[in-house]
Amino acid sequence: MGLFSRTKTTASTAAATAVAVQPQAGPDLAHLTGDWAIDNTHSEVGFSVRHAMVTNVKGRFTEYEGKLHLDGDTPSNSSAELVIKVASVDTNQAQRDEHLRTGDFFSAETHPEIHFRSTSTEPLGDDSYRMAGDLTIKGVTRPVVLDLEYTGSATDAYGAHRVGFEGKTVLDRTEFGLTYNAALETGGVLIGEKVKLSFDISAVKAA
Question: Which of 10, 80, 151, 167 has the most CB atoms within 10 Å of its CB?
């Protein structure tokens, strides 16, 4: 059952179901509606891009802050914001990370943050949602669409109420001014233009 979905029954069984079993969606929705802060110690913001036409280089950002507002009754009122520190880029190779911080790519000194702010949320059925928003990289803002999956909610060992989402999207890095590349002797280019972004989010409900 999705975060924003409601339990439904057929007309022939509605009366019996109402007496025998009380739907569980109502209390769950009431619990999840509200404001949530992304816990970056239990989340990951990652990316991958084609390298030398043969494999993918994967990386992540280790410093970011974000918040969610979830509305169980009206999904279109749900929203998200995320601010990523560009200098925290980590591809497990220090020289490459330093190059990514330069003007060839992110220009971290001039544009130290990546911003995402949602503009709409649409339920697709089950636990799937589509969230549109504006993504700003290197001072350039473009619309993007995220495919999201609600992965559950729980109260952890410390009494914090948590909710989880996984998300993904694909963007063209050149549309954000990330145009650096190099030709290969065997044909093609060193770095692909398409970048896959992935989000594995754990958020804690605000007090």
Answer: 80
Residue 15 covered by a domain: no
For residue 68, the enclosing domain spans: 32-205
CA distance linking residue 167 with residue 43, whole number of Å: 12
Instruction: Give the separation between CA 111 and CA 15, rounded to whole angstroms.
Output: 59
- What number of H helices and E strands is found in the chain? 3, 11
CA-to-CA separations, 198 to 8, 50, 98, 165, in angstroms, rounded: 32, 15, 22, 11
Task: Confirm whether 6 is domain-assigned.
Answer: no
Distance CA 203, CA 153 (A): 9
The domain that contains 108 carries what CATH number? 2.40.128.110
> What 3-state class would DSSP assign to 3?
coil
Q: What is the pLDDT of residues 14-29, one digit of tens each?
A: 333 333 333 333 334 4
Q: Could you give the percent of the chain with pLDDT greater than 70?
A: 86
pTM score of the predicted model: 0.84
